[in-house]
Amino acid sequence: MPALHEDDGVFTLDLGDDENRFSPDWLQAVNTSLDTVVEASGALVTTGHGKCYSNGLDLEWIVRHPEELPSYRTEVQELLARVLTLPVPTVAAVNGHAFGAGAMLAVAHDFRVMRADRGFFCFPEVDIDVPFTPGMAALIQHKLTPAAAIASMTTGRRFGGTQARELGLVDETAAEGAVASNAAELVRPLAGKNRDTLGTIKTTVFGATAALLRAAEPAAQP
Amino acid sequence: MPALHEDDGVFTLDLGDDENRFSPDWLQAVNTSLDTVVEASGALVTTGHGKCYSNGLDLEWIVRHPEELPSYRTEVQELLARVLTLPVPTVAAVNGHAFGAGAMLAVAHDFRVMRADRGFFCFPEVDIDVPFTPGMAALIQHKLTPAAAIASMTTGRRFGGTQARELGLVDETAAEGAVASNAAELVRPLAGKNRDTLGTIKTTVFGATAALLRAAEPAAQP
Amino acid sequence: MPALHEDDGVFTLDLGDDENRFSPDWLQAVNTSLDTVVEASGALVTTGHGKCYSNGLDLEWIVRHPEELPSYRTEVQELLARVLTLPVPTVAAVNGHAFGAGAMLAVAHDFRVMRADRGFFCFPEVDIDVPFTPGMAALIQHKLTPAAAIASMTTGRRFGGTQARELGLVDETAAEGAVASNAAELVRPLAGKNRDTLGTIKTTVFGATAALLRAAEPAAQP
């Protein structure tokens, strides 16, 4: 389960040591941690430990609760919209694999630092026949260059850290063991920004995309 | 006239050995070829042979058929929208000059590989007093960085392959004779993607721009 | 006060030798100069001399005329929209500090050349608790990559010329004394473009953002 630690205004949210998929309990724990960070006007680092940052949707849970898929999707998109416009500085420390909605979560942060030598950043949607929702597609396009969006969204390609940096999927790479600490140093000077101002700025910049993420999905055809 | 060849799932559409302008017959032949590629769920490479990839609109034909200009423009923009959202992987192998709507056709593909040492990528619109339509402007802006869009759309500058690569007008350059083959290798691993999924992804990503390209032009003032 | 000089079709608008803030008189002088440049179908270089390009809003004047803030803001945003869509080639020669609306003015030009070794490009909005208006946020996002927009809009960071070039906030850097001349050489080949065509192109490319800059601000709540 996600766990939150603070070091002088910089909060590190450890997403877990497994695949760190978005189970309902995991989503609730993440949201509670975000409440704490916002309340404190801190800066946020998210990271995993082990092989994965996050592999995204909890497919096993979905299979067991098909009737709850619409509300689950709403919750996931709400988290992406919340992180996108969170009124504190945010950075994803991508310690390992970031797949699908896990990669989208990283993209929703202000910045991304990725381990250089292991782990893949990947949108497998095209290969698993799960197209992006309009909100998810808008999120990715709002954060990446057109070339990076196309190369990552239409190919299913797995990008190692160095390739991800070259394409601009992430801002920096770091050696094993330095990913979370470099990420923390990136936002440490930004901790304590006025959260009303920063929140307004992010909402102005990303408002249209956040609204799409929060829009009701059209009902499936009967 | 355009001709289509297949090699193990990768279809190469040869646009011709001349200026490869968009005559009505040329447009029909290209569309018929696209039907074949989509039907086969193949990957698409377009290229010319000789000095030109394509010089765009068939100005001689337009001069001879002024009354058909509106329907001609509709057909051209439909081709750009179709390539932009084609449900197979696409790459333009820019073997030589790509001017005006010829450059737009290249931009509509997922990727672009350009010959390094000869040929120019150019939007001459500002110099020939033919402004971009809203759909064409949206297409270019949806595929290039802001800096690349401005530098190419407002100056009429002719970019050689190396400059085009530096600015991000194209993704890669290649030596003479390797342009089409490098382009083919780029999409070969992507041939066979589920075309419904890829088509949905591209339509989600580029839907607004495709709609602008397909929108009726406002009627000219009497 | 701003002063305009011409050299063979290239007009250099000197924004002043002080902080070059946007006082009402300064705005009027700039607009009168723009009239001259457009009338002549010239190319435009803007620059300051001394430590600053422009530090933006005239805060002292605002404090003395609080009741005129709405009309002042309208004038400032009109200038940004006008420069964004000016029907002649434009380049900002950023000789020194460009802060806030001064940096936005630079961003509104087609191109930016910045002094490499001194001066900062900075959006201090997050630190002075003055969020971007929707039009200003749209302007910056329309001209910069997503990564550059986030790094500059949410951090208050001051970017020297070299960093600004790496991030794409500016297109080129130059040594002291070569900033304005390099900028002039950049647009000299473009002077004399048909201003109706170039104006239509820029209005098509940037129309939505110009409209946001020109939209009435929502009235403040009583």
From TrEMBL, chains A, B, C:
Q: Which residues form a coiled coil?
A: none
Keyword annotations for this protein, in alphabetical order, are: Lipid metabolism
One example of a Gene Ontology biological process annotation: fatty acid beta-oxidation
GO molecular-function terms, A-Z: delta(3)-delta(2)-enoyl-CoA isomerase activity
Organism classification: Bacteria, Bacillati, Actinomycetota, Actinomycetes, Pseudonocardiales
Highest taxon above the source species: Bacteria
CDD domains per UniProt? crotonase-like (cd06558)
- Protein's name in the database: Enoyl-CoA hydratase/carnithine racemase
What is the originating organism of this protein? Saccharopolyspora gloriosae
Q: Which InterPro entries does the entry link to?
A: ClpP/crotonase-like_dom_sf, Enoyl-CoA_hydra/iso
